[in-house]
């Protein structure tokens, strides 16, 4: 199998895996903020309480086949469910396309999964649950350590530690200087994001960190201009931290090299 065919196969498998994971993320996004188990009880229709059977739980396909309604009570099923499943599939495919068949791929697929869940939860309840963020630290360390062992690039793991601590400290400073503008959840997430970005390179870290404030700022200005928010309105920043991280992972290194080239 040639390199192009291998990449296409990997991207396809990652996309299918993402769709399946996306179905589970819908459960996570709904239950974790409410302190409920993500494994028990089984999923059920919120309208009639009827347990959702296997044939009605196929990602995207079941929603389309049922016309977006419960089989038993015809209660509408939010379009968000297939959108999350499809969006996770796209995210996984892009990560696979960016990293290829590498030791680092599992680590960044994991980040994509929890990133989608955290972004949606923050949009819903303006909170980044410790139940997701804190366990992700040891998972990230383990997966990135495996990636460094597989590639022999141990300096990348050290860089990840320094980068994660540095971005965490920066967000903590922002929190102390202006408590109303930054939540503790953002500070905790910053260390995790910083580690992932720095493992790829300093350029990814700088671009990803800056991208969060740029994208969040553009969004805030847009809300002000359309009068959908006022000065002082609380805006969840977690989604923009994760969007900035996506930019840093995707194009951080070439953007940083280009910027340094302009300076030089």
- The ordered string of helix (H) and strand (E) elements is HHHHHHHHH
Q: Assess the beta-strand content as a share of residues.
A: under 5%
Average pLDDT score: 93
Structural class: mainly alpha
Number of strands: 0
Range of helix content: over 70%
- N- to C-terminal distance: 42 Å
Uncertain runs with pLDDT below 50, 5 residues or more? none
Radius of gyration: 20 Å
Number of helices: 9
User: How would you sum up the global shape?
Assistant: globular
Major sheet, described briefly? none
Topology readout:
Layout: H1 3-31, H2 61-65, H3 80-99, H4 105-125, H5 130-151, H6 154-177, H7 184-200, H8 202-225, H9 238-263
Helix pairs in contact: 1-3, 1-4, 3-4, 4-5, 4-9, 5-6, 5-7, 6-7, 7-8, 7-9, 8-9
Describe what is shown at a glance.
The chain is 71% helix and 0% strand.
What can you see in these coordinates?
With 264 residues, this protein is mainly alpha-helical. The protein has 9 helices and no strands. The chain starts with a helix and ends with a helix.
Provide keyphrases for this structure.
264 residues; mainly alpha; 9 helices
